[in-house]
């Protein structure tokens, strides 16, 4: 049965969205095309009608996952316009966010996988890092600097490390330590400390 262009476009979007979630949950190599397409409600045979390769899908799904994370940061920031950076940090460094593997941060879930991918995937991650730095700069009123890069690195690292331990108390300590450092830096840069 022939699929209309509109339906083909919808199918393609569904595969990209599904891949963005499943890759975050299982890694780029942790799920095969058959299971990925089944997750999108399609057959494996339709994959190559939509994408030239899994590498193409990996880059597109990475872009989608990173964009999804940015939308969540924006929503958190909008919830507290008086202190948007703290709102983002509180959301990001929460146990709830840590538990959201399929919907959580693409950097936490996929950075080590992305490091082993080709230039297309790395370009998506690089663009995402730059966009997050710009967002942190706009939320904090600071210039995009090494200090902001350190904040982003600390946040991503804290969530990553908290996911790697069984001890929930240690996981919370990791998140809280990063949050305290971010909060302390914000007070220092705003002249409060």
TrEMBL record:
SUPFAM superfamilies listed in its UniProt record: Homeodomain-like, Tetracyclin repressor-like, C-terminal domain
Pfam families noted in UniProt: TetR_N (PF00440)
Keyword Nucleotide-binding: no
Segments passing through the bilayer: none
Top-rank taxon: Bacteria
Molecular-function GO terms, alphabetical: DNA binding
Keywords, alphabetical: DNA-binding, Transcription, Transcription regulation
PANTHER family: TRANSCRIPTIONAL REGULATORY PROTEIN
Name used for this protein in its record: TetR/AcrR family transcriptional regulator
